[in-house]
Amino acid sequence: AAAPGTPQAWRQHEGPRRVKRAWVIPPISVSENHKRIPHLLVQIKSDKQQPGGVIYSIKGPGVDEEPLGIFSIDKFSGKVFLNAMLDREENDRYRLRAFALDLGGVTLEDPTDLEIIVVDQNDNRPLFRQDVFTGHVVEGAEPGTCVMTVDATDADDPDTDNAALRYSILEQGAASMFSINATTGEICTARPGLDRETMGVYNLTVQAADMSGDGLTTTAMAVIYLEDINDNSPEFTKEEFSMEVEEQAAGVDVGKVFVHDKDLVGSPSWLAKYTILEGDPEGAFTIRTDPHTNDGVLSVVKPLDHEVRDRFELTVSVQNEQPLEPTAPPSPRALATVCVRVRDVNEAPVFRENPRRISVLEGTPPGTPITTYTASDPDTHQIQTLTYALLYDPADWLQLDPHAGTVRTKRELQHPSAFLQGGWYIALVLARDDAEPPLSATGTLSIEILEVNDHAPQLQTPAGVLCGRPGRGGTLLLGATDDDRPPHGAPFHFQLSPQQPQLARNWSITRFNVTHAVLAVLAELPEGPYSLPLLLRDSGTPPQEQQQLLNVSVCHCGRDGTCQDGVLAAATAGAGITLGALLIILGSILLLLVLVAVGAARVRGRRRALRKGLLERSRDDMRDNILNYDEQGGGEEDQDAYDINQLRHPELFSARAKPPVRRDAPLSSGTPLAPRKLPNSPSDIEDFINEGLEAADSDPSVPPYDTALIYDYEGSGSVASPLSSIVSSLTDEDQDYDYLSEWGPRFRRLADLYGH
Q1: Where is this region: Disordered (predicted)?
Q2: Looking only at Cα atoms, what is the longest distance across the chain?
Q3: Strand ranges inside 344-498, DSSP E
Q4: Residue 298, pLDDT score
Q5: Short-list 93, 151, 118, 123, CA closest to 211
Q6: Boundaries of every domain in the chain
Q7: Confidence of residue 12 (pLDDT cuts 50, 70, 90)
Q8: For residue 672, is pLDDT > 80?
Q9: 115 near 94, Cβ under 8 Å?
Q10: What pLDDT score does 181 carry?
Q11: Which distant-in-sequence residues (6+ apart) come within 8 Å of 295 by Cβ?
Q12: Homologous superfamily, domain 28-119
């Protein structure tokens, strides 16, 4: 058995049970940090003493296991010693095994446990978990509002007072606005009156002490921030602000007004909102908040006019974006007066009526005043003179008085014109003042060229073909055009000439639509050409009318109401060619003949002998045979169209049957001329043709205008080719008759006949 020093513990006991109890060693307690070393802890003995003695040993942590060398035993006496200071915070107990052996190494006792308990000493200070604790609380918080909790730890035995901590506030300022729970370390507000604008941050020194506040201590910082609330209204830095702005300026900043707010800069409680209460009935100004400085920025949104108003006195108020907290002291709305002076500057002239619209009759003579287009100068407080000039006058129709602004016609205004847009002529007028620098303005002058009814309607096709039997193709559709624009054009009125009432017995005209009428035959008429004088009138104001001739060819009617013979219809359709068209055709032929004559005259001198020789040797008549072209004959191979003897001996045929008088001949007919003398030489051909043309125009007994006239042969020995050869050398593909349409309505029929 073993005991820590009492003889009773080492008494011998009888029986196995006493031996077992004697070998049991109770736990041994030793204080940490024991400084007297080596220190006897206990002496162990075995009841089984041997004559040679007992050998004792111990094993376990602190002996033969880490940490080594802390404990040792005297193997003969069984005394256990402490060889080093212990630290309870490192190891609070050691469990060893004790052995008893005889000298031969035989175990005398079963191994027993030896437990050494390290008794704690207060050798550790409390430690805060962080050096600085941070908390937040709104300003004006009620007492007892918890802000934060500080906490500390102690490495000593928590079951002893060595680790029993207590908290306290060592320093927080004179106000003592906060308190701390000694046991939990919770910091709360202690009294009312927290004001961020007065003190925004509180720095507290807190302490933790063990031994229930009487032992070791440590400190830390607790920083408490007050959160802002809107408990302060913004205030203007002064009661009146002065600014200046130029007139006619818009969208520019005039100036700033300044305010001060005690609340946290940049927070919603600090941000200001401005309002213009008075002095701006037209809404010419606006004010906004600068988000960085919280200043009010005054701007002009509508142009100001110095001549109308040169000074504005605005009343401006300011308040926060967020409403004040109910706990905030009430305060009146902050007001300030802003005086804005409008500075006078030179302004451009202004056309009060822009564009100016006027109406002028077409054909207005040059020099006619049509309007006075002037501008006004807004600078009534400055003496300035305006001058005017035409900036845009594409047709050069106008002239402008540079001082009075009177617009006159420079030349006659024509309609239609390429410079008109929908009947309107656009010009630009420039007005300029004499300031330094000068300013100008542009006015638009829109002139409506009014249509004047100065054109009578014209027949679209002054000729036509119809069947001479009433009710069976005996109608012809007539159309008309008018160069005037509405309302001076259609509807057109067609009627037979009132000067010849006898026409109404055989003809009638009825309206078809606003531009066409239908000519109808009332009685069966013989075939042949007819000239009907028609009166055409438009719907203008006043109306224009004109009498025109309609050339009508009456053909033989077939069963279906059309011309029976297509060839005859085609021939009679040619009868619709007007006198003007015939004259043009004859003039063209005459021009060709003149060119031929000129060419012949140049070589006549050299070839005179040759021509005479040819004439003497030739007994045959070299004159070309004249063909009747209004009869569809056999071409140049057909020699029966006319008897050539009529040209060789006209005096023999002059007394024959007189040709019928033309139905379209004038009422007063001239006396037919006597047979003319044949030309003696090719140079006389031109005079001969002109005489024949004049005779044909004045003689009613000759065939109609569009019937081929018989002239004379071209002379003997001409080096020029016959005209028929010139014409026959050109095919239809070589000719372009579209230009005839540009000569007017009377030539459209020719263009249709020859151009397609």
Answers
A1: 658-684
A2: 207
A3: 356-361, 369-372, 387-392, 398-400, 406-409, 424-432, 440-450, 458-459, 463-467, 475-481, 493-496
A4: 95
A5: 123
A6: 28-119, 127-227, 235-343, 356-450, 458-555
A7: very low
A8: no
A9: yes
A10: 94
A11: 256, 257, 258, 259, 289
A12: Cadherins (2.60.40.60)
Radius of gyration, alpha carbons of the chain: 69
Name the residue type at position 339: C
The DSSP element (H or E) to which 570 belongs, if any, is helix 566-573
Residues sharing a CB contact under 8 Å with residue 205, sequence separation 6 or more, in sequence order: 169, 170, 171, 172, 219, 220, 221, 222
Amino acid in position 344: D
Superfamily of domain 127-227: Cadherins (2.60.40.60)
DSSP state of 504: G
Local structure of residue 65 (DSSP, 8 states): B
61 Cβ contact list (under 8 Å, min separation 6) = 67, 91, 94, 95, 96
Q: Which of 357, 134, 312, 145 is nearest to 225 (CA)?
A: 134
Place of tokens 């940090």: 33
Q: Check if the beta carbon of residue 225 is closer than 8 Å to that of residue 201.
A: yes
Q: pLDDT higher for 329 or 430?
A: 430
Quickly state the pLDDT bin for 339 (edges 50, 70, 90): very high
DSSP notation for 670-714: PPPPPPPPPPSSGGGHHHHHHHHHHHHHH-TTSPPTTSPPP----
d(CA 109, CA 696): 179
Place of tokens 């203008």: 540
User: What pLDDT score does 205 carry?
Assistant: 95
Using pLDDT thresholds of 50, 70 and 90, give the confidence band for residue 176. Answer: confident
Cα gap 732→737, rounded to integer Å = 10
The helix/strand/coil state of 93 is strand
581 pLDDT tier (thresholds 50, 70, 90):
very low
Query: Is beta strand 356-361 parallel, antiparallel or unpaired with respect to 440-450?
Result: parallel
Task: Judge contact between 132 and 225, C-beta under 8 A.
Answer: no
Average pLDDT of the chain to the nearest whole number: 78
Q: Following CA atoms 495, 500, 503, 504 in sequence, which dihedral angle do they give, to the nearest 10 degrees?
A: 60
Position 24, amino acid = V
Token pair for 69: 């060398």
Do 28-119 and 127-227 agree at the fold level?
yes
Helix (H) or strand (E) holding 549: strand 545-555
Q: Which of 5-14, 27-36, 233-242, 457-466 has the lowest mean pLDDT?
A: 5-14
Residues 49-85: tens digit of each pLDDT: 766 688 889 999 989 888 888 999 988 888 999 999 8
Q: What amino acid occupies position 313?
A: E
Q: Could you give the CA distance from residue 91 to residue 65 in angstroms, rounded to a whole number?
A: 14
Tell me: the pLDDT tens digits for 115-129?
999 988 888 899 999
Q: Please state which CATH number belongs to domain 458-555.
A: 2.60.40.60
Residues 553/575, Cβ–Cβ less than 8 Å: yes
Residue 232 carries which side chain, given as an amino acid letter?
N
Half-sphere exposure of 145 (CA within 13 A, CB side): 17
Please state which CATH number belongs to domain 356-450: 2.60.40.60
pLDDT, residue 629, reads 44
* 275-317 pLDDT per residue, tens: 999 999 999 999 999 999 999 999 999 998 888 888 999 999 9
Of 333, 439, 338, nearest in space to 387 by CA? 439
Q: Name the class of domain 235-343.
A: mainly beta
